[in-house]
Specification:
The complex is a heterodimer of chains A (about 180) and B (about 375).
Chain A lengths: L13 H4 L2 H15 L23 E3 L14 H5 L5 E7 L12 E9 L8 H5 L5 E3 L14 E2 L1 H8 L8 H10 L5
Antiparallel strand pairs in A: 1-4, 2-3, 3-5
Chain B lengths: L2 H39 L11 H4 L4 H8 L3 H11 L10 H17 L7 E4 L5 E4 L7 H9 L2 H11 L3 H32 L11 H6 L7 H4 L1 H14 L24 H26 L17 H26 L7 H35 L1
Antiparallel strand pairs in B: 1-2
Chain lengths: ~180, ~375
């Protein structure tokens, strides 16, 4: 059994009971703080540095050839805990020589930023590495509609990220060699 | 009425208006100082965005003034003025509107007897710069400034809501307790200053300032009285560590919880006006008023320049004391209500009595020694 040791609290000395020495030392502390460097970040002009792996606004990215990476598999829509993503799947139009008949692409892709909780599950689940949470963190708008990012907006924010797979190129060559799956 | 009387009245009214506006603007800038000093002590920079367009255009000076937040009080005042005027349905309308006025008026009335400088003309005739040199100066100050508590009590009562009510009750109890200490702490000072056989007025603030000219400041002669007076002043001006009426951590906003817009602004200004006037009174009583340093004669020559320097010196001392008020506020936590009462009645009051008795005996002894 643990033995309980009662520690007697020392009675306050006379100088402690007047509070004055403690007040003086407190005043000294605050006075020294008065001249210390300030830690304020002047926000709109100065921005905090964003660490790697930061989960900002979710965006759609294109591969270095400027092709859509998203194939509208709807996994992100499925995994999204707050149901912020809505995808309407579609085909790449026939007349696009370069890209048609290779993959699918979303017809509509909407992320409701009023619902999004920035959890990053969509980025994690995406098999095509098409959706990324990027560095932007401050959003504002005058209406609810304004804060629903459509496909165009998502690609505009996402831009192009480096890609090591070049899946489209591989598929194209495979198709040309006649062993498409 | 004869012309001379009208002229004199006009002059007094002008002086009064000037003085009210000066004290009000000092109170406004005390709010700014509070925000700035608080920010600096907490490692922040404080208000640094407000600026007037044409001032912002001036190179160097414009950004400097902006960073100092010089125009912030203006913006604050305008904000209070243009906010929606909300009167809760459950209040007693008459007293609800009356209480901010009752709070502000005593704070501004005490300044009438406050001397802040002197002017010596070419003939060597010295005039004290004061609105009214009342013989009972200090008594007048105590009488009027303690009326300020009515504003707070009325606000707490007429709001008809529990937190303001508690704030009002606490404040009345605190004011009564510390008023005693305050009165007792200045008695030895006046005992000391008034030599027997003096024909002049004993309680005048002017005579007490002049007694410190080229002599020891009373804070050096009577440190305990000065300390007790300062502590009581903190309590009377509702500053931390004694801000019982407000106690924003446990009473929401205390007595002014139900007040908004300009009515709250008036309470706010009244509180800071109390701080300014309190600091000025401490300066006159214990820090030598407009006189230079203890045992040093005023280095400035008589005349307009000297008079202005004297007033400036008086203001500098007052500002240092205001800074001290702010400094203490952002250092100490608040006393609990029962601790405030205990400190006031069980510690400070006996100490003030002992202090008074000691000086009564000392002064009597000195008088006897001088007489024999």
């Amino acid at each position: 059994m643990i033995k309980t040791v009662v520690i007697e609290r020392k009675p306050l000395s006379l100088s402690e009971r007047t509070y004055l020495p403690q007040i003086a030392s407190g005043l000294k502390t605050t006075l020294s703080n008065l001249f210390k460097k300030k830690v304020t970040l002047q926000y709109p002009e100065q921005r905090p540095s964003i660490p790697r792996g930061y989960r900002g606004v979710p965006t759609l990215v294109k591969d270095p050839n400027g092709r859509e990476k998203c194939v509208s598999c709807q996994l992100c829509e499925f995994v999204c805990p707050s149901k912020a993503i809505r995808i309407t799947p579609g085909d790449i139009p026939e007349d696009d020589e370069e890209q048609s008949h290779v993959e699918k692409a979303p017809k509509e892709f909407e992320i409701d930023m009023l619902r999004c909780i920035y959890c990053g599950y969509c980025e994690e689940v995406c098999p095509e590495e098409a959706i990324f949470l990027q560095e932007d963190y401050s959003l504002s708008g005058y209406s609810r509609e304004e804060l629903v990012n459509d496909k165009e907006k998502l690609y505009e924010m996402g831009g192009t990220l480096p890609d090591k797979h070049f899946k489209w190129d591989k598929k194209k060559t495979e198709e040309e060699q006649g062993n498409a799956h | 009425m004869d012309a001379e009387l009208i002229q004199m009245l006009a002059l007094k009214v002008t002086y009064a208006i000037v003085m009210v506006s000066v004290v009000m603007s000092i109170a406004g800038y005390t709010v700014l100082a509070e925000r700035k000093v608080c920010a600096w002590m907490q490692g922040r920079v404080g208000p640094n965005r407000t600026v007037l367009p044409f001032v912002a255009a001036i190179p160097f000076i414009g950004p400097f003034l902006r960073n100092l937040g010089i125009f912030q009080p203006l913006a604050d005042g305008l904000k209070f003025l243009f906010k929606e005027e909300i009167v809760p349905g459950h209040v007693n309308k008459f007293y609800y509107y009356l209480s901010p006025i009752v709070a502000l008026v005593p704070a501004l009335t005490t300044m009438t007897v406050l001397p802040f400088g002197e002017f010596t003309n070419a003939e060597g005739l010295t005039t004290t710069l004061v609105l009214a040199n009342v013989d009972l100066g200090i008594l007048f100050v105590f009488a009027i400034s303690s009326l300020g508590v009515y504003g707070i009590v009325l606000a707490g009562w007429s709001s008809n809501s529990k937190y303001p009510f508690l704030g009002g009750i606490r404040s009345s109890a605190q004011m009564i307790s510390y008023e005693l200490v305050m009165g007792l702490s200045v008695l030895p000072v006046f005992l000391w200053v008034n030599a027997p056989g003096m024909t002049g007025s004993g309680l005048s603030l002017v005579s007490i300032v002049n007694s410190q000219e080229d002599a020891a400041w009373l804070v050096l002669v009577q440190p305990l009285s000065a300390f007790l007076f300062l502590v009581a002043l903190f309590a009377e001006t509702n500053r931390l560590p004694f801000d019982m009426p407000e106690s924003e951590t446990d009473l929401v906003g205390g007595f002014h919880t139900e007040y908004g817009s300009f009515k709250f602004g008036i309470f706010f200004v009244a509180e800071y006006a109390h701080v300014v006037i309190g600091s000025a009174i401490f300066t006159t009583l214990f820090l030598g008023g407009w006189h230079f340093l203890p045992w040093v004669a005023d280095p400035w020559a008589p005349g307009l320049i000297g008079s202005l320097l004297g007033v400036g010196w008086f203001l500098a001392k007052t500002f240092c004391l205001i800074f001290f008020f702010i400094w203490v506020r952002w250092t100490l936590p608040r006393f609990r209500y029962d601790q405030v009462m205990k400190l006031g009645w069980a510690k400070l009051l006996p100490l003030a009595l002992v202090n008074l008795i000691f000086y009564v005996i000392l002064v009597t002894y000195l008088d006897q020694a001088a007489a024999s």
